[in-house]
Amino acid sequence: MSVRDVLIVGAGPSGLSAAIACKQRGLDYQVLEQGVLVNSIYHFPPQMVFFTTPELLEIGGLPFMSPFDKPTRGEALNYYRKVVDAYDLQICYDEKVLSVEREPVATDETDGTDRRERRDGRDRRDGTDGTDGTDGTDGTDRTDGKDRTDRTDRRDGTDRRDGTDESDLGVGNGSGHAVRTSLLSAPSLPSVPSDPAPSVPPVPSVPSVQHLFAVETHSSRGVRRARLARTVIMAIGYYDRPVRINVPGEELPHVHHYYGEPHPHYRQRVVIVGGGNSAAEFALELYRAGAYVTLVHRAATLKPSIKYWVRPDIENRIKEGSIAARFSAVVREIRPTSVVIGPCRAFEAAVVPDVPVPPDGSAGYVAPARQGQTSEEEIPADAVYLLTGYRADAALMVEAGVALTDRQAPVHDPNTFETNVPGLFVAGGAIAGVDTGTVFIENGRFHGEKIVEEIARRILG
């Protein structure tokens, strides 16, 4: 089975920038994406407008052309498709990473035989789970069900996939080349008389121990694959993992963690839980589409991070009563036709003071004083949107051995983005933990270049 220099988990902007850097440096890489290209952006609301300018979304030195000051979701999707085409990036879609394991590799240096030690006893040199005959070395499906392991591990050191003699080499890099390992010379033998010549036992091979990453994936078709790499970059983002509020009824069919078109909710009663940009923008869209909206937020005021052109609008709609609001309130239960809320104990004051809006386009506007939630209340609801934020998959990183900070962010070197697991790097939203408001495309797009610079230094010298 081929061993790549880099496996990149995630085909978002930070993952794509890492792939571009790998290609520019001649590293053997592959990108694994659980969904579609820039999957998070694809799942943004169709009408979404970025809170930034086009040039701050650029990667790979390719210009992002837009007639607008703030680009749209559709423009971003088109731009990143063109980036992938321009660099001909190698991406495998519909492959969700199940595990990332750092494993020792014992290499017999007399014949180049890969003698990986598997803790679970399974030999995954053919990239399969042993049940479907799938060869995962190149990201394609094997339909004949044949076991190809006899083509990858040859006792004479010859890899018959490309005819290359690797008898004095270590582990291949998946591109027809190999990385030479340091050979330990055998001790010299004492001279012996030429007649008679005693038989000399063969010198035993001396294994050297390296470490590789075994990355296992699963597709929507039920196909499992395993790949090997010297390094892994986890550019997994966070938008695909909503923060759950863990209350009864959260699994009901009319409860959603993402929002889309407001039209289906015309003349419906809709409860939105949250106080950030998503909650504010969708509340306004629903109101203008003829829905009856109630906003529920656990804090005393809306978040200060709300876009400056959105905040006065949502504040005025709340002030005039066009959009109902419950502040300092939390959801206790979601029922088929209603939502039960109660006071949030984190806020003791019933009335909160006026909060000035940041002077960035809405200067002079001051948020009104509001009455906090003081008792339990049942609010009628035909639909419920829990727009309470998103988090990166910390469990996947922890299972790979990555330590977390008290903010649930991976411990990593701020210069190289390498975690406490040697050879395992994090990029983009994966480094944010609970502080997702600190990492955006604008700054996360530079992580991949720094990471690959370090990887190339170690592998290429």
Description:
Helix 1 runs parallel beside helix 8. The model is unreliable at 109-208 and 347-363 (pLDDT under 50). Strands 1, 2, 3, 4, 5, 8, 9 and 20 form an 8-stranded mixed sheet that branches. The protein has a 5-stranded parallel sheet with strand order 10-19-11-12-13, with helices on one face. The chain has 461 residues and is an alpha/beta fold. Helix 4 links the parallel strand 11 and strand 12 (292-296). It starts with a strand and ends with a helix. It is 17% helix and 22% strand. The protein contains 8 helices and 20 strands.
What's the shape?
Answer: elongated
SSE pattern: EHEHHEEEEEEEEEHEHEEEEEEEHEHH
Helix-and-strand structural type: alpha/beta
Number of helices: 8
Largest sheet: 8 strands, mixed
C-alpha-based Rg, rounded: 28 Å
* DSSP E strands, number: 20
Unreliable segments of 5+ consecutive residues: 109-208, 347-363
Report the mean per-residue pLDDT as an integer: 80
State the end-to-end distance: 25 Å
Approximately how much helix is present in the residues?
Answer: 10-25%
How much of the sequence lies in strands comes to 15-25%
List keywords for this structure.
461 residues; alpha/beta; 8-stranded mixed sheet; 5-stranded parallel sheet; 20 strands
